[in-house]
Amino acid sequence: MGENKKSKKTIMKNSKNLILILFLIGAVQFVFISCEKEGGSSQMKCQADTFFADTCVFFNVKELETTQDSLEYFITNNAGFTISFEHKWEAEKALDVIENYEFNEYCTIGSEKLFAYFLTDGQIPEGGFFGEDCVPHEVCDLKVELTSSGYYTVVEEGHWAYASETEEGALHILKTIQYFQSNFGCFVGRPKTNMQYIRK
Predict the structure, then answer these.
(1) Residue 11 DSSP SS3
(2) Distance (Å, rounded) from C-alpha 115 to C-alpha 181?
(3) Which DSSP state fits 140?
(4) What is the pTM of this model?
């Protein structure tokens, strides 16, 4: 009996997996985020094991074009995909990014589109693109905090990354970043941006 207790303690002590259970309000499902050490290093790799489907639109990058009206500039196609921009250079830059990564899927979280990302055949892109506006983040250091202004934010060591009016929304953003193992949050046009994406 004593040996069994000692064995269990040893297993728990030597375990490299930390399982965090997050329950998203309103979703009949648990999200398991597994964090484990890579090789012999102290670096942790965190990844959400389950993924909630977001609102996604598929498009053909070859059918996209930039247009404008009296107030805004747009990236659009004939199938209902549209992103608007305040400045012409933002629309042109955004189209360059989409074409470079060959994006073919645009996804948003929440009715207010509080967080958006692009996919190429179901995956976020890897590698850099000249002239990108990207902010690096460490997946395992991201967490959700409630700010004094009443917003729930996904932060890294106190630095704001993404915000939501609800804790559920912020946890959804965090889980999405962890699921895709994103290392960068990228934007076209700041501080007011109408296009954002994540990449490795």
Answers:
(1) helix
(2) 16
(3) G
(4) 0.73
28 falls in which pLDDT band (50, 70, 90)? Answer: very low
Using CB atoms within 10 A of its CB, is residue 162 exposed (0-12), middle (13-18) or buried (19+)? buried
**Residue 154 corresponds to which amino acid?**
V
> With contact defined as beta carbons under 8 Å apart, do 44 and 75 qualify?
no
Strand, helix or coil for residue 82: strand
96 token code pair: 């360059």
The percent helix, strand, coil of the chain (3-state, each to 5) is 25, 40, 40
Confidence of residue 176 (pLDDT cuts 50, 70, 90): very high
Residue listed under structure tokens 């949050």: 185
Q: Residue 101: how many CB atoms within 10 A of its CB?
A: 19
Cα–Cα distances (Å) from 181 to 71, 93, 109, 134, in that order, read: 37, 25, 17, 15
Q: Which amino acid is at 122?
A: G
Q: Are 8 and 14 in contact (CB under 8 A)?
A: no
CA distances from 189 to 35, 91, 196 (A): 34, 9, 9
The amino acid occupying position 23 is: F
Query: Under a CB-based contact definition with an 8 Å cutoff, are residues 119 and 107 in contact?
Result: yes
Q: What number of other Cβ atoms are within 10 A of residue 22's Cβ?
A: 15
83 membership: H or E segment, kind and range:
strand 82-85
Summarised one tens digit per residue, pLDDT across range 112-133 is 567 899 999 999 999 888 889 9
